[in-house]
Structure formats: C-alpha cells, structure tokens
Specification:
This is YncE family protein. The protein has 388 residues and is mainly β. The protein contains 2 helices and 30 strands. Strands 1-30-29-28 form a 4-stranded antiparallel sheet, with no helix packed on it. Strands 2-3-4-5 form a 4-stranded antiparallel sheet. Strands 6-7-8-9 form a 4-stranded antiparallel sheet, with no helix packed on it. The termini are far apart.
C-alpha cells in the first residue's frame, strides 16, 4: 500500500473515531440521570466549568449551540494545543481536537465554519474545521530567527480577527516593532505583512462596512487604521501622551480593541492605566476615559444589542501578585459602570453569542505559589453568564 493511501486511511480512521467519540458522549448525555443534570446546568443563569489546563481564548458558534476554547498543556516547544467544543448551555465537553502547535488565540469564520487558531510561540496560524474538528493545515506567518546559541524563535502571533465578508484573517504580533499579517481564507496564503512604527501591536477590530482594520498598540500612535486591500496603514490616532516608540516613552499599552460600527467608536483597554479609552473614529480623538476598579485590564468586547462595553481585568500583576479579577459591564451611552462580576481568580478572554444575550469568560487559575488562591494542579475555567 502506498504512503499516500495509508495517510488517507489514517485520516479517515481519525475522522471516524472523532464522530464515534461525539456519538458516545451524546448517548451518555441522553441517559435519564445525565439528561436531568444537563438540563439543570443549562437552566442556570450563571455557570462555571473548572475543567481545563492552560486556557486562553473563547469563541461562539454561529447558531450559539457550541462554544470553542483554546488550551495548552505547557509552554515547552514539544507541547501541543487543544480546541475543546463545549455545549453552549451546560458547558460539557462534546469534542476535543489536538492541534499540532500550541493554541492561544481563536478566530471563527461563521460563514465557512472555520476556526483559525493562533499559535503564539511558533508565529503561525492553524486551520480547523469547526464542524468535524479536523485540522486542515498550518500557515507559517513569522520567519524563523536563530540567536547566537542556535536557538530558533519566531515573532509571536496574538489576536486573530476574521473578516467573513471577504474571507480574510487578520493576525497581530506584539513585538518591537509590531506586525500585522493578512491571510486569504480561500487559499490559506499570506497576502500582506505590515510593519508598524509603534510597539506591542496587540488588539484589533474590523469594520466590514467601511472595510477598515483598526489595530491597537503602544508608542506614539496607539491606534492604526489599515486598508486591508492595499495592506498599508492609512491613518493613525494618538492620545498625545507618549513621547517615543519605546517601552520608556510609551505611556499606554492598548492591549485589546472593540468597535461600535454603528456609532463609529473604538473601545480600547489600556493595561498601563486600567482605563477604557473611547475613540471617535471620524476625528481620531479620545472622547472618554473610563476608569476600571481593578488592575491588569485585559479584554474588551462591544455588545451592540445591549449597547454595553464589557471588559475583563486580571486583578494581579508583578507588583501586586495576590489579587483577583472581575468582569465589568459599562453603559456605552453614558459610560457609567452598570455591573461588576467578581470571577476569581484571573478573568481572561470574552465572547458573546450573536444575539448579545449570553457572555462567556475564560478564567485562569493562579500559577504563582505566593498567591493565596494557589492550588497545585488547579484547573482553569469557562464561565457562562446570561445577560437577560
């Protein structure tokens, strides 16, 4: 038998095993006891599932029946990554897919049902069929670099944003300088590499109506506006606070970014000041700074159905390693804090259902033994919060 035929048979066997596993799990859930328990879990307005090691980002399926989370088992190069598909209500695991490289960021094209997985340490993007869990390929974005000792490293990937209308993927890289990669989702090829004049290029948001990509970072110009067709920066926004594109001269680090396409506003979390900055896109100016009661501000999403800004803060930093974090819901009309939800220990990433009525949060356990909540082999979590 040829090697090609053996590969095809192995792939078919893997696919069959995946389907069989899903069927077995479904059968288990349909037993009277399991069905009753699942129903109780599904009915709860807030549900937390502590079941994951090394959890990072979360994404929600187009029909809001499934949630995907990315995890890793360790930072060593030999460690792989995993994508877990969960029932959106009970948070029970329905399927687990191992990716060839460590999995951190998630971007879901709901039109093609394709997951794009950011392999941060390897500077690449893995492609996973969200229906079957089959890994379709890996796109290498960053070039390999070797240091004086012969150790290989790559510029890191961070945020993965999907443009469903044009079937494109945008990936940020928070280096010095920062990078933005643009990938054609139809051919799975890299079309543009944009080098930023700033540093720590991290967050991103896309406006399909105007066909503009916005990227947040540190340095003199904290927000970049990019024409993705041309693959170039066409405008930049600045707070006017920073003096140089260096760690010493950058007052802000706008780590994540969300967009209100109707109101033409950008919301960015500043990790340095624990404030949400609101930018008016037309003028490029800051119209509001919203203080958050907590340190290490991290993720942000905008909920147009409820006109709310939602943020996470980890609650701990190197200078204050023992705190815990929370989720903050902000009225996007008045910029007043509406609600704070404590989620010990360290809330990380956010995702909303398409109707804007359910929020998902990944929460990381403390890793340092000096934290009072540290437990050996503690697991990370996914939390579902009904917003109705």
């Amino acid at each position: 038998m040829s090697r090609h035929h053996r590969f095809k048979l192995n792939a078919l066997a893997l696919a069959a095993a995946t389907v069989l596993l899903g069927a077995c799990q479904t059968a288990a859930l349909q037993s009277p006891t399991a069905t009753s328990a699942a129903a109780a879990l599904s009915a709860s307005p807030v549900l937390r599932q502590d079941a994951f090691q090394g959890i990072y980002e979360v994404a929600v399926s187009a029909d809001a029946t499934a949630v995907f989370v990315a995890t890793i088992t360790g930072f060593d190069p030999q460690n792989g990554g995993f994508i877990h598909r969960l029932d959106a209500r009970s948070l029970q695991t329905l399927q687990t897919t191992q990716t060839p490289r460590r999995s951190f960021a998630l971007g879901l094209n709901r039109s093609t049902n394709t997951l794009y997985v950011g392999n941060t340490m390897e500077g690449s993007l893995s492609i996973v069929d969200a229906s079957s869990g089959v890994v379709k390929g890996v796109i290498q974005l960053a070039e390999a670099k070797q240091d004086a000792e012969g150790k290989t490293s790559y510029a890191h990937t961070r945020k993965v944003i999907v443009d469903e209308k044009h079937n494109r993927v945008f990936v940020t890289s928070p280096g010095q300088p920062g990078l933005i990669w643009i990938v054609d989702g139809a051919t799975n090829t890299l079309t543009h590499t944009i080098t930023s004049e700033g540093i720590w290029t991290a967050g991103a948001a896309y406006d399909a109506g105007s066909n503009r990509l916005y990227v947040s970072q540190g340095g003199v110009h904290e927000i970049l506006e990019i024409d993705p067709d041309a693959g170039k920066v066409v405008r930049s926004f600045s707070t006017g606070d920073s003096t140089a594109n260096t760690s010493e001269g950058a007052k802000h680090f706008f780590i994540n970014l969300a967009i209100d396409t109707k109101g033409q506003r950008l919301f960015s979390t500043d990790a340095n000041t624990s404030q949400v900055y609101v930018f008016d896109i037309a003028s490029g100016s800051v119209v509001k700074q919203i203080p958050i009661d907590g340190i290490s501000l991290l993720d942000v999403v905008y909920n147009p159905q409820r006109d709310e800004i939602v943020t996470t803060h980890r609650g701990a930093a190197r200078s204050a390693p023992t705190g815990t974090g929370a989720v903050t819901l902000i009225d996007a009309a008045t910029y007043a804090v509406k609600r704070t939800i404590d989620l010990p220990m360290h809330p990380n990433s956010l995702a909303l259902t398409p109707d804007g009525q359910t929020l998902y949060v990944t929460v990381k356990a403390p890793h340092g033994d000096k934290h009072p909540g540290f437990r050996k082999d503690a697991l990370d979590s996914v939390v579902r919060i009904d917003l109705r």
